[in-house]
Every structure is written in structure tokens, then in C-alpha cells.
Amino acid sequence: MTDLTRRPGIVSRLLSAPLAAAGLAAVFTAALWLPTASFAQDLSQAPLAAPSADISFLGLFLQAHFVVKLVMIGLITSSIWVWAIIIDKWMLFSRNKREMDRFEQVFWSGQSLEDLYRTLAGRSNQGMAAIFVAAMREWKRTYEGSARSFAGLNQRLDKVMNVTIAREVERLESRLLVLATVGSAGPFIGLFGTVWGIMTSFQSIAASKNTSLAVVAPGIAEALFATAMGLIAAIPATIFYNKFISQTGRQAQRLEGFADEFSAILSRQIDERG
């Protein structure tokens, strides 16, 4: 049997085998650990992905601050109110124009004033018909009264017709102040919502310490949405306010022109009967 103690090469190889295995295991473990640790470190240093935000109109409203929501609700309500007034006034001015055209056609057709008065006396009249009925009522009170007072009749007729014209113009101008108010104040109310939204958006950015576009965009979009709502309410209000004011002026001129012509007719009859 060979004496192993006299063979130092074999002993050294047998003793170094466990050490080599342990070294390989250590190297293998380190190889596995280092990428894992590096990956964990990279992951901890990487910015967190921003949560996806809904930038639809409904999403912007639901994500908005409470104050911005109140501004949006107020502007939406104002916009609905404005369009209701616009539709109502459009129909009113169109109807008034048709009625004035129809009345002028009948009035200048040669029909007796007494017959026309009896036809219109029991109705709810507007426009020229209201002026005609009011003047004829004062005329008949004077001629059918026990004491006929022709003195100052022309002045009384003019006053009655002027009062009727003022009432008609007031009816035409009713609720136009709402259009003027929304048209002038709407953009500023929307701007207030925008400023408030941007302030809260900056506060959120400072709290999250994340300035990526995915974080900044929803807050800025919701703030600008308030300005858009203000413009949506204000632009139609301003346009149709100017249009209706112009139509009111034209129809008032037609009423005043008819009142002057009718006053001249009645004045001529007063002179003939006086």
C-alpha cells in the first residue's frame, strides 16, 4: 500500500477540492446576488409610473377640486339658462314681426277703425294692436262720455300710446340683462376656476414630487376646462344680446312710427268733429 504521506501532491489535491468547491459556490452565489441587488437598486431609484388619469369631459369634472366643480356647475347652469332665453326671445321677436306685418296690412286696407276696434277689443293684444286699442279706448271714452272734453285729447292720446310703447319695449327687453351679465362675467368666472385649478395642481405636484407630464397634464386640463366652460356660456350670450338689442330698437321704431301716423289720423278726425 502506498504511503499517502509520502505523496504530498495527492494530499494537497484532496485537501484543495473542498476549498475549490466552496469557492465556486461562493462565486456562483455572488453572481446570482449581484444582479439581483443591482436590479433592486435600479428599481428603487426609478420613478414610479404615474397613475393613468381620465381626461374626458366627465373625468375632468369628477377629478376637479370642489371649488372648480362649483364654478363648472354654475357655468353649465348659466349656459342652459342663456340658451332657454335665446330660444324664447327668438320666437318672441319672430312672432312680433309677423303680428305687426299682419296688423299693418289690415289697418291700411281701408277697414273702418270702429270695426277693427270691435274685433281687437276683446283680445290680448301686443305690439301695434295694443297701441291701437289703447288709443281707441281713450277716444271712445271721450266721445261716449257725458261731458265731451276735446281739450287736451291729442295730448292724452299721445300719452296713452307712449305708455303702451314703453310697456311693449319693456316686454321685449325682459331678461336681456341676463344675457349681458353672463356675456360679461362668464369668462372671468371661468378664469377664476382656472386659477384655482392650477393652484391645486401645483400643490399636488409639490406633494408627489413628480413633475412628469402624466402628472401635470390632468390638473392643467381640468383648470383650462373651466375657462372653456366660461367661454361656452359667454360667447352665445354676447352675440344674441347684441342681436336682440338691435331687433328691439327696430321694432320700437316701428311702434313709434305707427303711433305717430295713428295720432295724425285721430287728430284730423278731432279737427273735423270739433
From TrEMBL:
GO CC annotation:
plasma membrane
What's the source species for this entry? Xanthobacter autotrophicus (strain ATCC BAA-1158 / Py2)
Task performed by this protein: Part of the Tol-Pal system, which plays a role in outer membrane invagination during cell division and is important for maintaining outer membrane integrity.
Every MotA/TolQ/ExbB proton channel domain range: 127-256
Protein's membrane topology: Multi-pass membrane protein
Cell compartments where the protein resides: Cell inner membrane; Cell membrane
Q: Can you say what this protein is called? A: Tol-Pal system protein TolQ
Q: Does the keyword ATP-binding apply?
A: no
Q: For this UniProt entry, what is the primary localization, expressed as one broad class?
A: membrane
Q: Which residues cross the membrane?
A: 64-87, 176-199, 219-241
Keyword annotations for this protein, in alphabetical order, are:
Cell cycle, Cell division, Cell inner membrane, Cell membrane, Membrane, Transmembrane, Transmembrane helix
